[in-house]
Amino acid sequence: MQFKEVLGNKDLIRRLIRMADSSRTGHSLMFVEQDGYGALPLAMAFIQYMMCRDRREGEDSCGVCPACRKIGEMMHPDLHFAFPVSAAAGSSSKKPLSSSFLQQWRELYKENPYFTEAELYSRLGIDGKAGVISVAEARGILDALSLKAYEGYNKYMLIWLPERMNAEASNRLLKIVEEPMPDTYFIFITHAPEKVIPTIRSRSQMIRLYPVAGQELAPFIVSRAGVTLQEAQVYARTSGGSPGLAIGMALQGSAAASYLPVVSAMLGAVAGADLAGLLGSSEAVLSLGRERQKDFCVYMEDFIRKVMMIRRGLPSIADTLPSESAEAARFASVLRDSFYERAFKALEEARISVEANVNSKMVFCNLANVLYAINNF
């Protein structure tokens, strides 16, 4: 991956180039992003620039030298990866490591370097399970970094989602992050820096990514998903400038294909003051894995936002998809003005509870009761 292939964040790319050219790169960098923003391809382009023996100073890596080609394939012997994993279906290992899933990791990156956390878990066959970076993984990281660089230059450890490290794993890595070995670099990519232990966070240079502008993202979506430019512009806006989320929406016909029927049934029951029907409709979410339950909450919150925009006479900024238009217009005429903000809060609380591994039946039963109450009392 070269910098010229990375979407958006051009000012940040120039900053990274200046850091590398002036040898002011710290030994621990933490890329902060929203899911799917593209921190992984940006970090890979940065590592490639650092390791390229024939780079164009102030511009980019050459892209053709042996180091560039190996990094492009994620196969360089001095570049190591760690990411959240769990025991896959049919696996006999009770303590799986990232190394067991490197083939799937590389294949997914080659197909779509902007993949989301849920897409990785799906590819690894661990849908519905909480991915973690365990203490056994931390020991493997220390073992890998204790070896001399194969090619005599720097060693890089890229840790994707360090917030998924358990406490023991974090503490085991703390010393080497505090006192790094010469020519050893840690690259962290996080969606939730506040969940990374403070001692690691405080010793890392923070590099925050920004959403990709619609005028750059929309043509990219067209090229990757084959949708029309008009549809791509909607996906670019509704994804919040996240290439990963936007591509996922476009390729799947958006989350609406999976979630809209359930959302429509739930909101129909809310509008009709049918608590039993609402509870029955919400049970459809229970069969989804934990990651998809979180996605459902995000989708329903976004759909309700679209309904609110239509009700307030702002359909031009509602960004409804063609498949959502009729249902959004219908609910805009029946849900009360007082419903929306409290519904947003209830859905966000449900998403956080799912992430915290609270029993999903309790979470969605409570959500149904709250949504019923705020529109009918």
Short structural summary:
With 377 residues, the protein is an alpha/beta fold. 52% of the residues lie in helices and 7% in strands. It has a 5-stranded parallel β-sheet with strand order 2-3-4-1-5, with helices on both faces.
Radius of gyration: 22 Å
As a percent range, the share of helical residues equals 40-55%
Q: Number of helix segments?
A: 17
Q: Give the low-confidence spans.
A: none
Query: How would you classify the helix and strand content by structural class?
Result: alpha/beta
The biggest beta sheet is recorded as: 5 strands, parallel
- What's the shape? globular
Strand order of the largest sheet: 2-3-4-1-5
Q: Overall pLDDT, averaged?
A: 89
Strand content: 5-15%
- Report how far the terminal alpha carbons are from each other: 55 Å
* Total beta strands: 5
Order of helices and strands: HEHHEHHHEHEHEHHHHHHHHH
How do the helices and strands line up, and which of them pair or pack?
Blueprint: H1 10-21, E1 28-32, H2 39-51, H3 66-72, E2 79-82, H4 102-111, H5 117-124, H6 135-146, E3 155-160, H7 167-178, E4 184-190, H8 198-201, E5 205-208, H9 214-225, H10 229-238, H11 243-251, H12 256-271, H13 275-282, H14 290-311, H15 325-332, H16 339-355, H17 360-376
Parallel strand pairs: 1-4, 1-5, 2-3, 3-4
Written description of the protein model:
With 377 residues, the protein is of the alpha/beta class. The chain is 52% helix and 7% strand. The chain is built from 17 helices and five strands. The protein has a five-stranded parallel beta sheet with strand order 2-3-4-1-5, with helices on both faces. Helix 7 links the parallel strand 3 and strand 4. The chain is globular and about 70 Å long. The model has no long low-confidence stretch (mean pLDDT 89).
